[in-house]
Description:
By secondary structure, the chain is α+β, with helices and mostly antiparallel strands. 34% of the residues lie in helices and 17% in strands. Strands 2-1-5-3-4 form a five-stranded mixed β-sheet, sandwiched between helices. A hairpin with a 2-residue loop joins strand 3 (50-53) and strand 4. It binds FE2/S2 (inorganic) cluster (2 copies).
Amino acid sequence: MTDTLDLVVNGRSVSVACDGTVPLLTVLRDHLGLRGTKFGCGTEQCGACMVLIDGKPEYSCSREAGTVAGKTVVTVEGLCNGDDLSALQQAFLDEQAGQCGYCLSGILVSAMALLDKNKSPSRADIIAVLDPHLCRCGIQNRVVRAVQKAGAALSGAQP
Ligand code: FES
Ligand code: FES
């Protein structure tokens, strides 16, 4: 059954005609063309599909689209500053915290949610938040360094 889903995605109000029971990930990728968010497992086991819903990291592969009506969603595309990379994205680039990149959109949004609350996270803080994210390329140590570097940049401190 087709419903009209109204929500705010990356700061823009959108209306999408869709079945409210389809995954939010389908709405983002197939209806809105936001292909940065990835499908990995579909069962809340990998974190590739993570987006922020009202500022909180959530799996979009298992979340029914109808449940986000009226909410604010941020995907990896929403982390840029216009045409510029955000401090977080720049730090990942600087630290070369990525290999195949499949896990990165989810990791980036979860890291952003962490830095919104805490700009000086410890290694343990970062590992706790990013634990739901599977990376098979082994970039975990670089990710920790990049998140700490971004936090320092955002708080104006020396990395
Ligand atoms: S695709 Fe959603 S957790 Fe793996
Ligand atoms: S960079 Fe390849 S899965 Fe993480």
